Amino acid sequence: MAGARNIQAETGPMLAADGRPLKDSLNRALRRQKLRALLLISPLLLFIMLTFVAPIADMLFRSVENQIVQETIPRTVKALEGWDPSTGAPHDEATFAALYTDLVIAEEYKAHTRLGTRLNYEFGGASSLFRGTGREVGKWPTEVYTEQFVASDPAYRDGAAWALWMADPSVRAVLPLTADAYDAWALMTVVEKDDVPAEEQPLDFVYTALYRDLAAGALPQLMPAVDVDNWDSVAIRDLFLEEDAAWGELPVWQAMKSYGGNYTAGYFLNAVDMQIGANGPEMRAEDERVYVTLFIRTMILSITITATCILLGYPVAWLMANLPARSANLLMILVLLPFWTSLLVRTSAWKVLLQQQGVINDTLVWLGLVDDANRLVLINNEAGTIIAMTHILLPFMILPLYSVMKTIPPSYLRAAKSLGATNWTAFWRVYFPQSVPGIGAGSILVFILAIGYYITPELVGGNKGVFISNRIAYHIGTSLNWGLAAALGTILLVIVLVLYWVYDRVVGIDNVKLGG
Amino acid sequence: MKLKHLMGATVLAVGPLCGSMAFAQDIAECENCSDSMVLMSWGGAYQASQTAAYAEPYAALTGVNITWDEGSNEAVAKLRAASEAGNMTYDLIDVEGPDSQRACDEGLAVEIDFDEQLAAGADGSTPTADFGPSIINDCFVPQIVFSTTFGYRTDIAEWNGAVPDDLCDVFDLTTFPGMRSLESRPKKNLEWALLCDGVAQADLYDVLSSEGGVDRALAKLDTIKNDVIWWSAGAETPQLLADGEVVMGSTYNGRLFAAAAEQGQPIATLWDWQVFDFDGWIVPEGLDEARMNRVMHFLNFATDTQRLADQAKYISYGPARASSQPLVSTHATLGIEMAPFMPTNPANQKNFLVNNIEWWADNQDEVEAKFQAWLSQ
Q: What is the CATH number of domain B148-276+353-375?
């Protein structure tokens, strides 16, 4: 090697026929080949990215996404930055005034009810609190400010004058609340009403903001001077409390503060039966914990189902691999038959078979094995889920087992026996170890399918045999808490990946075979 | 109760003369309207009743092509997904009251001006007055009143001739032994449990909102928990009753009618403390002008007095308009008088509740968590 490099150093890089360096030429050829390969798979890649990876990533992202609070009530979130929840609900007028401005604007965009729905996930009552207050907030008697401004100088009624004042940087600098409220109003006027702000009189909340600015001692240039010292005023905090006493209590404020950020761990905490309390994350009340139990149950039942599949599938696969072709084919058809039947039909058939007045119980009673008064409870519990799912997933165990067993030469067993091994020793020491890759493949398939199952547990599992996936479906379809569903789904995905990694560590993924 | 005036009129249900099949020949011309619609509904017997009572007549009158999507049990989820994708594939969606509230809250449904956009009652009343208490929010155009109530088998020997006529018989395992079926959701079950635990109707939601209120209801349910099969689809209870798996169970009144009257099963309805709910249309946000015009034109036709009364020929749910009540007649194929099977029949509504949408919207999440934790214990 060293010699070769020396030669190169003396004579320069090795050249191809066209005079380019050989290495570049080779790279080019390879690159073209790679590109062609990529082009060939690009339709599939694009399809998978667009229809599978992107939607899943988008869905999983919802588990932390939380812009809605920040977007709907930005002023309130800002006002709450310096507030310490341990001192009780806020009392200062400024915070309530910020919330008032936010709510009036949100109500125009019809966003306040969506915020209520969001916060209702964190504390019950938010939904009607925001809906109810949003309905009333536009009718609050803040027009006293508007009237007093207009009475002191008619210019305050003039949209064009307002537009002029609010375009002036020096005015904006001394009237921060007013400038902010006016901007929001102007945007709303354009977007929601399709009007020109300079031709419209601002709404009451803009005058309210102006009053608050002036009362705080601001002296804007340009605008007609007014002295607001002895004006009639309304206490916005009192209006809130009159509307709903909940505004004077801690939970709603704490929820608005805790969930004010753009991203939240709240859904994930919820998914493991925790919540954000006054002092950071804490466990939920004992009687509200559901998800951890469900995750554990999903694991235990999935492992049980995998085990029963191995127990039932192994002998069948062995028979198929060792019987003469004709009988083996018949067996194969029997194994595949369930594949061609709808999942729902099979599950419903199990309902008919397993229920207390069903075929199995009737037969057992008729045979005298079970007393009529004590019929077996085989459905609407864990037993129902295990039985039905074992049946449905059995082919996924048998097929990989069969394809691996098919490759084990029968001569090995004969050799073991001829060397003096008993039937059991020959099986356990010689045959079984060679079939382990099949068990591995079957187990992974069955376990991963089982862990995400939803229809069958829903129909035959009652309340003791349902999986975490049933809760995910509930939150997607019924409660509409997609963030929580995404968090539960993410956790399930992570659990599967971790188990896969552990499996790889213990068994080795190279030891898994789906066929010869 | 406010609902009385709406419900009361059913007793006047008279012969087929009033329920004339003649369609309004002078249906107003629809200007700048699309020529097709996608309606989302529940499938099954209910959608069939809508098809027969107003979708087919409308299609025959206007030549509009109507496509059905049977997705209403997850309507709001689908509506939200379509709205986020910016591609509204549905023109009109059939939902229950609580779902309409959520769609309205999330800004997914259009607000309706009832008196402006809907047909006046056949008796001249304004739509607002005619629909009365069934107008539960600004987005919801009601069609029917249905109820969740109990059905029981009429051939149970162990009951020694006793017939359940009181809601609390559900909790009485000595007189009425056997399995029950209840929905695996807290709504309605908690109310029923409290009513049988001695809470007055007026105090129900105060008790449920108070500390320990939900626990009290769950404690009452504990007394029968071992004898309950929990259902998640409305079709399960009639099936369980027919199979003899349960002796009584809650479900929607129309399902019980179908099992008893149409299939001849030995099943009867226990109307005591039935819970009323409304089902109706919402119009999704994000339709273009032509589609919107078409939908409003259809809505005006499909929710008029006659059309809502016609629907009751096919299914035992009460029309949401007071003016439709006198026109309710006999079943289209069985020929039996429908009034006794209507939840709104005065004889059937000595005691009843109305689904408290507001309370449940507020407390659903917490109570659901408690209920599920209780179920899995």
A: 3.40.190.10
Cβ contacts of B104 on chain A, cutoff 8 Å: 113
Domain assignment of residue A276, yes or no: no
Percent of chain A with pLDDT over 70: 97
Q: B151 in helix, strand or coil?
A: strand
Distance separating alpha carbons of residues B56 and B64, to the nearest angstrom: 10
Q: Where are the beta strands (DSSP E) in chain B?
A: 36-40, 65-69, 92-96, 141-153, 180-183, 228-231, 248-252, 267-282, 318-319, 352-354
Tally DSSP H helices, then E strands, for chain A.
27, 2
Contact flag A481-B215 (C-beta cutoff 8 Å): no
Task: Please give, rounded to a whole number of angstroms, the shortest distance from the CA of A29 to a CA of chain B.
Answer: 43
Q: Tell me the per-residue pLDDT of A174-186, one tens digit each, with 9 for 90 and over.
A: 999 999 999 999 9
ipTM, interface predicted TM-score of the complex: 0.84
With cut-offs at 50, 70 and 90, classify the pLDDT of residue A10: low
Structural domains counted in chain A: 4
Task: Point out the residue among A116, A290, A356 whose CB comes nearest to the CB of B376.
Answer: A290
DSSP labels for B104-138?
A: HHTT-B----HHHHSPPPTTS--HHHHHGGG--ST
Measured CA to CA, the distance from residue B13 to residue B303 in angstroms comes to: 19
What are the structure tokens assigned to B25, written together? Answer: 């020949």
Judge whether B225 is closer than 8 Å to chain A, CB to CB: no
Cβ separation B106–A124 shorter than 8 A: no
Query: φ and ψ at B231, to 5 degrees?
Result: -105, 160
A110 touches chain B (CB under 8 A): yes
The answer for residues whose C-beta is within 8 angstroms of residue B119's C-beta and 6 or more apart is: B127, B300, B301, B303, B304, B305
The Cα–Cα gap between A466 and A380 comes to 9
Nearest to A116 among B74, B105, B367 (CB): B105
| Coil vs helix vs strand at B230 | strand
CATH fold of B4-146+278-350 reads D-Maltodextrin-Binding Protein; domain 2 (3.40.190)
Task: Name the region of A43 (left: φ>0; alpha: ψ -120 to 50; beta: rest).
Answer: alpha
Nearest to B105 among A113, A121, A481 (CB): A113
> What pLDDT, in 10s, does the model give residues A130-164?
988 998 998 899 999 999 999 999 999 999 999 99
Confirm if B142 and B320 have CB atoms less than 8 A apart.
yes
| CA–CA min distance A79, chain B (Å) | 26
Q: Rounded to an integer, what distance in angstroms lies between the CA atom of residue B209 and that of residue B219?
A: 16
Run of H or E including A359: helix A359-367
The residue type of B231 is: W
**Interface size, chain A vs chain B, as Cβ–Cβ contacts under 8 Å:** 86
A277: three-class secondary structure by DSSP = strand
How far apart CA A506 and CA B290 sit, in angstroms, is: 63
Helices and strands in chain B: count of H runs, count of E runs: 15, 10
Whether residue A484 lies within 8 A of chain B, CB to CB, comes out as: no
Considering the domain architecture, whether residues A371 and A407 belong to the same structural domain is answered as yes
Which residues 6+ apart lie within 8 Å of B331 measured at CB? B261, B313, B314, B338
Q: CA B301, CA B55: separation in Å to the nearest integer?
A: 10
Who among B243, B370, B375 is closest to A288 (CB)? Answer: B370
Give the mutation candidate from A109, A478, A479 for the B interface (greatest B CB count, under 10 A).
Answer: A478
Same-domain pairing of A214 and A346 = no
Looking at the structure, do residues A314 and A418 belong to the same domain, yes or no? yes
Q: What is the pLDDT of residue B25?
A: 53
